[in-house]
Design goal:
Elements: E1 4-8, H1 17-30, E2 35-40, H2 45-49, H3 61-67, E3 81-83, H4 105-110, E4 119-124, H5 130-138, E5 141-147, H6 156-167, E6 175-182, H7 188-201, H8 215-221, H9 226-229, H10 234-248
Parallel strand pairs: 1-4, 1-5, 2-3, 2-4, 5-6
This protein binds adenosine-5'-triphosphate and magnesium ion.
Magnesium ion (MG) binds near residues 41, 45 and 123.
Length: about 250
């Protein structure tokens, strides 16, 4: 069976895409799955969370996307595997000068290692650009993390429209699996935002939202998942519960 590919996407910056990829992937690994994370953001925050900074000349995913070099996933003792990124990824689009082939590069390169994993989880930059379309053409499922504040709601429909248009044109199997509330707190604004989203999107909104919890940024700054950093924390419990929801949908394609 080949990996289920999940893209974590929202063009709103700071919606906890990277923390979600890092901790969801780690929780799926702790549940016994073979997991690969893909850093598809030239900001390289996910790569940094794994304690890495890719220097010029070292391998990053741009080499495979642009020059078709074999994928070199990195392995760690206590984290899922990683395809790292560097600032070079920002130049990827220019190499294809709008050639349609460019929009399927991620799908094609991941197909070479898909059999080796149960889940592949992709982190995206805060935009709906060339790389986001690559991500949606490669994915089976999309998770939209939404910061639980009124301003977090802005633009969700643009993400959903893009998913719909990719689904109806170039990637029929693609579907939105979850909207994930992130950075929830006890304020009235946070509660109203959650109510609004649950009313609007019903079961698409994951049962387990992620609370604001200092252990989440502390863990990624330390290069370990929140489950390892502070197993009893609210952040760890929430990401574990969300991973169970994701896993319940089922493995493989
Ligand atoms: N549950 C949480 N509790 C506390 N802080 C959090 C939580 N989730 C995310 N953060 C913090 O919020 C900030 C934004 O999170 P993150 O980097 O994951 O967002 P992003 O959507 O990936 O951002 P970008 O759009 O820039 O890629 C980070 O500093 C992160 O550590
Ligand atoms: Mg990010």
């Amino acid at each position: 069976m080949s990996a289920k590919i999940i893209s974590v996407l929202n063009h709103k910056g700071g919606s906890a895409k990277t923390e979600t990829v890092f901790n969801l992937a780690a929780a799926l690994r702790l549940a016994g799955h073979r997991v690969l994370m893909v850093d598809l953001d030239s900001q390289s925050n996910l790569t940094e969370s794994c304690g890495l900074f890719i220097e010029e000349g070292e391998y990053d995913i741009t080499h495979s996307i642009v020059r078709n070099l074999p994928l070199q996933a990195l392995s760690f003792d206590n984290l899922p595997d990683l395809l790292p990124s560097s600032i070079d990824l920002a130049t990827a689009h220019g190499h294809f000068s709008n050639n349609i082939v460019g929009y399927f590069r991620l799908r094609d390169i991941l197909s070479t290692i898909r059999e080796q994993y149960d889940y592949i989880v992709i982190d995206n930059s805060p935009s709906l650009d060339f790389l986001a379309i690559n991500s949606l053409n490669a994915a089976d499922e999309v998770i939209i993390p939404v910061e639980c504040k009124p301003k977090g709601l802005r633009g969700i429909s643009a993400v959903i429209n893009l998913i719909d248009s990719i689904q109806s044109t170039t990637n029929e199997k693609l579907r939105l699996s979850h909207i994930l509330l992130t950075r929830k707190d006890n304020t009235a604004l946070s509660k109203q935002t959650e109510e609004f989203l649950r009313e609007q999107y019903g079961k698409l909104v994951a049962k387990s939202g992620i609370p604001s919890n200092v252990s989440v940024p502390e863990a990624s700054a330390a290069g370990i998942s929140v489950m390892e950093y502070a197993p009893q924390s609210k952040g760890a419990e929430a990401y574990e519960a969300f991973a169970k929801e994701v896993d319940k949908v089922g493995l493989g394609v």
